[in-house]
Design brief:
Rossmann fold
């Protein structure tokens, strides 16, 4: 069996080839099946430009997100789709696929591929703790595990979620009660559904959201349950709420630039300069807030993440008990080393000639991290988040 990266993760045996989370220019034709774990841009980018007729397996929610984005780009909807979720898989004469909850964002899945000789599990991005909107990732029973390593290094250990939620609510209440608008920023898909429910349930405020977050919230509610009261920021009702001076506004994290509070006040027609707080797992790094404050004049950063942290990744691998582990994306070299050292399981990183490592976090688009290449014995290692 081979696991390698070629514009998407490839899992190849003597008889089968699975293409996982394809990027632009991925080789769709040679794969027996294309599988997509969830709807974040770095996982569905290959589908957004794919030609019609490609056979793609994903959850109904992920297919709906893909449809929405393709229509905005005036691309035809992919018709040859395979719907997967925790209750449904795929079975052919040669192989079978089972889907498991990944806990990462709405519609996120893990996949177990049964080739008849091996059970191969692929996590994509996972969260191994329950959140306000998602259950924790399921544990797959597999011989070979391919696991994401976004926060696969010891410095990335998050606070307990209940503690973090309480801190966010306390900060929001103090800010808004003083008559200051609050802008919370995070990924439109996943993070902002959680923040919508957290603020609505915890404080009961009317929440203003960007158009994209509004659309994703509606998809979430169509397939799952209501998130609470929220209004599109550019609507007439949204403008009336902002005029009242007390508001919580959710925006995607790519909207930052130099002197962000004043620029946001101007673009949103706010009467007061807002406070800005980022919600991202990278904030657990001590230097993160200071660099972001210096660059964009933000006021706070909370390490709220939809990913498993370092301890959770080790906990997950230990629960699966595979005979072999492949680590991919983020900190694959470090995580593989620690799996071998601490769990005594054979592990190796999947390298990619485009691999990079985190250097300075920026948010000019979603997701976007400014990076530097890091050579390692003639190859390069990767960071995609």
């Amino acid at each position: 069996m081979r696991v390698f990266y070629d514009n998407g993760l490839m899992v190849e045996t003597d008889d089968f080839k699975f293409l996982l989370d394809p990027r632009v220019n991925a080789d769709f034709q040679s794969a027996n099946l294309v599988l997509v774990t969830h709807g974040h841009g770095d996982h569905i980018s290959g589908l957004l430009g794919a030609e019609e007729g490609k056979r793609v397996g994903a959850s109904r929610i992920t297919h709906e997100i893909t449809r929405l984005v393709r229509e905005k780009r005036e691309r035809k909807v992919l018709e040859n789709t395979v719907y997967l979720d925790r209750k449904f898989g795929v079975k052919t004469e040669k192989f079978s696929i089972e889907a498991y909850d990944a806990g990462h964002c709405m519609g996120s899945l893990q996949f177990k591929m049964d080739t008849g000789e091996q059970l191969i599990g692929y996590t994509g991005d996972i969260n191994f703790r329950e959140s306000m909107t998602e259950r924790k990732a399921d544990v797959m029973d597999c011989d070979v595990l391919v696991i994401e390593a976004t926060f696969g290094s010891e410095e990335y250990v998050f606070p307990e979620r209940e503690e973090l939620n309480a801190e966010i609510l306390d900060y929001a209440e103090k800010t808004v009660s003083n008559g200051v608008p609050l802008v919370l920023m995070g990924y439109s898909l996943g993070k902002c559904q959680e923040l919508t429910r957290l603020i609505s349930k915890g404080l009961g405020y009317d929440i203003l959201v960007s158009k994209q977050i509004f659309e994703f919230n509606r998809i979430f509610e169509h397939f799952k349950y209501e998130l609470g009261k929220y209004v599109e920021v550019d609507s007439e009702e949204g403008r009336e709420i902002m005029e009242g001076g007390k508001s919580v506004i959710l925006l995607p994290q790519f909207g930052l630039s130099k002197d962000a509070p004043r620029k946001m006040a101007k673009s949103l027609n706010l009467t007061k300069i807002p406070k800005i707080a980022l919600c991202t797992g990278w904030a657990v790094n001590r230097s993160f807030f200071f660099s972001m404050q210096q660059a964009y004049d933000i006021d706070a950063a909370f390490p709220l993440s939809s990913h498993a942290d370092f301890n959770q990744l080790l906990e997950y691998v230990s629960a699966v008990e595979p005979s072999r582990v492949y680590t991919t994306f983020g900190n694959p070299v470090r995580l593989a080393k620690e799996i071998k050292k601490r769990l005594k399981i054979n592990a190796q990183p999947v390298v990619n000639r485009m691999q990079q490592t985190l250097d300075v976090y920026t948010v000019n688009q979603e997701p976007r991290i400014t990076m530097k290449s890091e050579s390692r014995k003639g190859e390069e290692t990767s960071q995609e988040k």
